[in-house]
Every structure is written in C-alpha cells, then in structure tokens.
Design a protein that fits this description.
heterodimer; A: 258 residues; alpha/beta; Rossmann fold; 2 domains; six-stranded mixed beta sheet; four-stranded antiparallel beta sheet; disordered N terminus; B: 243 residues; mainly alpha; MetI-like fold; globular; disordered C terminus; binds adenosine-5'-triphosphate; binds magnesium ion
Chain lengths: 258, 243
Amino acid sequence: MTAPADEPPADVPVVIDIQGVSKWYGAFQVLNDCALSVRRGEVLVICGPSGSGKSTLLKTVNGLEAFQQGAVTVDGVRLDDPKVDLTRLRSRVGMVFQHFELFPHLTVMQNLTLAQVKVLGRSQAEAQARGLIYLERVGLIDHRDKRPAQLSGGQQQRVAIARALCMDPVVMLFDEPTSSLDPEMVAEVLDVMAGLAADGMTMICVTHEMGFARRVADRVVFMDEGRILDDAPAKAFFAEGGVRSPRADAFLNRLLRY
Amino acid sequence: MFDGFLAPRYIGWMIDGLGVTLGLSALASVIALVLGFVLCVLRLSPSRPVAGLAAAWLSAFRNTPLLVQLFFWYFGVSALLPDSLMAWLNAPHRIGVEAFGAPWPPFEMLAGLLGLSLYSAAFMAEEFRAGIYSVAPGQTAAGRALGMTSTQIWISIILPQAVRIARAPLAGQVMNVVKNSSLTMAIGLAELSYAARQVETETFQAFQAFGLATLFYIGAVALIGGFSQLAWGRSSPPTGAAR
Ligand SMILES: Nc1ncnc2c1ncn2[C@@H]1O[C@H](COP(=O)(O)OP(=O)(O)OP(=O)(O)O)[C@@H](O)[C@H]1O
Ligand SMILES: [Mg+2]
C-alpha cells in the first residue's frame, strides 16, 4: 500500500472487514493477502487490470467465493463462523452484476418480490409495496409488468439495482455494472448509483468509470495480480502527481489516454 | 393404377388402428415425460454412482434400436417371467378398471407401452438436461446473492426457464413417440401401421391403405404441433416492443 486512507471518524462502524484474504485456484493465486475495511456510508471503487481478482474479491464479501486464508466480517458477522446462516447473510448484501442477471421468465415486479417473499418471508403485498418504492426510485415504475427482455440494458440494470435494494442491504456490491452497456446508457445507471451514495448507502463498486470514481467515491482501491496495491482517498489518488503505485499510474494513464 | 377408394369397412379398421396409435402414444408420452424428468434429475445428481448409473441407463436406451428393445420386452421378458405370471398377464381379466369397462390390455400392448415409454424417456431426459444446461450460470449466482437456497433457486429460477427452453424439443419428442409407435406392429400390436398392412393384405389396395395411414400420421403430428403452439402462445413471455 502506498498511502494510508485518511481515517473517517472512528465512531462510524465498520460494515465490511476483509483481513489477510488469500485464494488459490490450484497453484494459481487469485487473491494475495488482501485487506480492506469499509465503514458505513463509505463508497469504495475498486479498479485494476482484467484478471487482477476484483470480481473474486468482491464475491468473497457475500460468500459467493470461498477462500483458503484470512477472514471476512460483514456487519459484525464472520463468514467462516459455522453458526452463520450464509443465505441469511447474503440476503443482506446486495449485488449487481455486469450482465444484470434478471430472471427472464418473471416480470419486473416479480423479479423484485421473489427473494423478498422466499428469503425474508414478506407477504406479497409488503413485497410489492417495497418493490414500488424502489422502482420509483430508479425511475421505472411504469415498467413493472414488463419482462426484462422488453427493457433496454440500462433499464435492466436499474431493475437489478432495485431488486437488490428491496432486500434492505447493509452494503451494495457492484461488479462492473456499466461495462456491458451501450455508452448512452451508462449515465442513467451511474446516476442511480450516485444517488444511492448521496443517501448514505455503503457501496463497493468494481468499475473503470474513472469520472464516477473521482466524483462519487470516497476511496479508490487498485488491484493487480491478486494484490491490493493502492487504497487511497479518491482525491489523493486522482490528484496530479497523487499518491499512486507505479502500476496504478500506468493503469490510469492507459485508461485516460482516449 | 388407382383402383377406387377403400371400402368403409376397411376405413373402419384403419380408424381403430389410429385409436390404438393415439392411445398408446398419449400414455407413452406421459410416462416418458415423467420418467424422463426423473432420469434427468438422477443424471444431474451430485452423487457420482447415481449420476453414473443414470448415464449408463440413458445411453443404453438411446443407443439401441427401438425394434430390438420391443422384441426384448415382448419375447425376452416373457421368456424370463414365470409361466404363472405370464398366464395371468395374458388372461382376459379385469381389475380396478372394471368400472370403466376397460378390458385388460393384451400382453403385446403392455410390452409395447413399456418399450416405447422407456425408449422415449431416455430422449426426453436429455432434452430436459439440455434445457437446464442452457439456463445461464449467472442466474444461479443472482439467486444465491439474494440469499435463496439451492432448492429455491432450482424451483423458482432454473426449472421454469429450463422447461421453457425444453418444451419445443420435447414436443418434437412427443411427435417421435407417435411415429415410433408404428414399430410396435412388429410385436403384433394392432395400431395404425398394423391396420394398414392388414387392409393391404385383404384388399391389395396398397396405395390407399398406406396413403391413408400417412395422412393419419401427418394429422396426429400436426395436432401435437398445433396444441403446443396454442399452449405456449398464451404462456410464453412477450418479446420485442412494449405491450
Ligand atoms: N473458476 C476459476 N478457475 C480458475 N481460475 C479462475 C476461475 N475464476 C477466475 N479465475 C482466474 O482468477 C483471476 C481473477 O479473476 P477475476 O474474475 O476476479 O478478475 P477480474 O479482476 O474481475 O477481471 P475482469 O476485469 O476481467 O472482470 C483471473 O486470472 C481468472 O482467470
Ligand atoms: Mg471481473
């Protein structure tokens, strides 16, 4: 790490704590002693070259990826605690995927209510009421009865964000949420994300949208070859001659060349 | 040389044959769909021995000729079963279904139904499996990320999509059942092809007999196609522009 993040006030609780996490696929090490902690309301952007382990690190947070070493704590609960109900815990960690992963056989509203009913045990009416709140919020209330295939990519991703929000997550994870979108749809998704950040949602975003990172993120994490090389306040990271590892510097230069 | 239409009596034979074909095919299709689904689930079992056994079963039934399988059930099994059981199976008795007045089916009917069902089930199992495999793996990840259990993901996310994907090929398999049912004439089942052959032997009107049989088969298969279109026209997801 090249620079310590300037600590937010110590009384803000840590929501995500990743300590010394390492993971191997056979002999290939995907994550190398990763450590990260995210406080409530913080917005973190993770960037780095393809294959550097960003998605893998993100998925350790909701237990979608197992790891061999280290510890992950979510909202005070350790993932490797044998008493932990992983499905319960996952329901409180929202995740948004690169390819949306809406359920194509269900309507938009059914996409939002399915897990609320099955996992949280809410009634249909409760689940729909909450669904409407979040559809309104992502600006898609008129599309509630459509199927995902009838929506544009940007609209689908906004539905996916609403679906995750319906579960009342303590943190939202975004894995390259705009990289499969046509350029004209990127902004509508980033706007929704910026709105969430402004409302105080804790967020970890893997993204190469450096404009978003500069404007919305509190901290920027740079990964390469399974290691966290930089973890710095966004301002410091992006400043001219800012605190950056040489690799992050090279990565940024490549990204910003055009 | 065209020598007139079939006499009504012979058309009656053919219609009786068509009835047997349709009844046999409908029963075999239902059994094969249910059994095919079960076999597919076993084939995908996390237990290696179970999955392996199911795979062996499926390839045995898919990779041998149906005619041989029918002979196996008709001649082979009747040679293996104790004489008393065979006598009982062949006896013209009525059980359970008496209220409906349905006669106990002849042994060739039982053997034909069994053979056709088992053969078709193996093909349907593979259609189910292809359907399950073509559901995007990201769908499971999405379900897990929402906190759903494996069972919930299977029931609410994977199976509905897999069935939608598999239903057109499955309808094709039902059409195959109708066509393949003609092979049961080889074990003496009086279905449509058998009837056509009988009419031809009796009347020497080969063109008319087999022509009519062909029309009946085309009609039956078209009916299945029509039904499936009707059923899915209502339940399939609308695509394209907004409603
Ligand atoms: N199931 C797997 N088996 C073996 N290697 C894997 C597996 N999944 C991922 N990897 C490897 O792990 C490394 C990290 O993958 P990961 O998806 O986390 O990278 P990433 O930083 O998200 O990349 P991208 O920007 O392309 O999404 C890659 O080199 C990838 O090839
Ligand atoms: Mg990735």
